[in-house]
Structure formats: C-alpha cells, structure tokens
Design brief:
The chain contains 7 helices and 4 strands, in the order E-H-H-E-H-H-E-H-H-E-H. It has about 140 residues and is an alpha+beta fold. It has a single domain, classed as Alpha-Beta Plaits (2-Layer Sandwich), CATH 3.30.70.141. It binds adenosine-3',5'-cyclic-monophosphate.
C-alpha cells in the first residue's frame, strides 16, 4: 500500500554532508520525496516529536542533540514506505545495524544515529503533521 513517512536527517548527518547520500538512497530505492526542508527545529517541536520518550533517561540529550544544529525533514512516499525506510536506515543502535543500511555504513553511536524515521503508519501521520504543517502534494 502507498504510504508517506517522515525522515529526519539529524544534525550529525547534516554536519557530515550526508544529506545527498541519504536522499540518493531513498530515491534509488524507488521512493519519492514529496516534502523536503532544512531547518533549525524549535525545541518545542522536538519535544513533541519525542513525547513518547519523555520518561526515558535519554530524552533530554536527544532533544538537545536535535536542536544543536540544522536538520532536514523529508516526507517520503511509496509502496510500504514506512517499513522500507526503517529497513534502509538500519537498527536504531548503529552497532547493531547491518552493512548496506545508512547507520550500518555511516554511524557508530546511538546518540548520533544520523536519522529518524517513523516507526509505523500511525506515527508517520502524526509526525508528518508536526513537521509539515503545509499541505503535501497528493
Ligand atoms: P530515533 O529513532 O530518533 O528515536 C529516539 C532517539 O533517541 C533514537 O533514535 C536515538 O537517537 C536516541 N537514543 C539514545 N539512547 C537511546 C536508547 N537507549 N534507546 C532508544 N533511543 C535512544
């Protein structure tokens, strides 16, 4: 089924000039970028984005990291886009991510795991609403 998902390229990914590489992989897979913005994310937006992790010990650090520099927000559309993108990014902890995934190829630390992508269709809907308040193309 066609789905749209949210991908964030975190400040470490932007800093390391990985925007093009990550977008290239997404497009090469056959997925379509239907929204794209480079922005300094407001703290309140990031706190809401990670609200489910509020009680976790890493919450403060992940919010600080996401607001430490520019991020790229992408709306990515295609067949089974949510699962396809998650698989392409690799395990949350890069040390467990397979080679050939973004994290398996470019990251080592869970605190700097380069990207976020929506965990399921429900989360994708909520996250896209948060990061793309403007209407996305159909
Ligand atoms: P992300 O997919 O953006 O969702 C939450 C983020 O918190 C995660 O990627 C990591 O960057 C960060 N994080 C730090 N420590 C942990 C942890 N122990 N478990 C899950 N996420 C963590």
């Amino acid at each position: 089924m066609e789905e749209t998902t949210l991908v964030l390229i975190k400040p470490g990914g932007v800093e390391r000039n990985l925007i093009g590489e990550i977008v290239r992989r997404i497009e090469a897979r056959g997925l379509r970028v239907v929204g794209l913005k480079l922005m300094s994310a407001p703290k309140a937006l990031v706190q809401e984005h990670y609200a489910e992790h509020k009680a976790r010990p890493f919450f403060k650090d992940v919010v600080a990291y996401l607001t430490s520099g520019p991020v790229v927000a992408l709306a990515v559309r295609g067949e089974n886009a949510v699962k396809a993108v998650r698989a392409m990014m690799g395990a949350t902890n890069p040390i467990e991510a397979s080679a050939g995934t973004v994290r398996g190829d470019f990251a080592l630390s869970i605190d700097d795991n380069l990207t976020h992508s929506s965990s399921d269709v429900k989360a994708a809907k909520a996250e896209l609403k948060l990061w793309f308040s403007e209407k996305l193309p159909r």
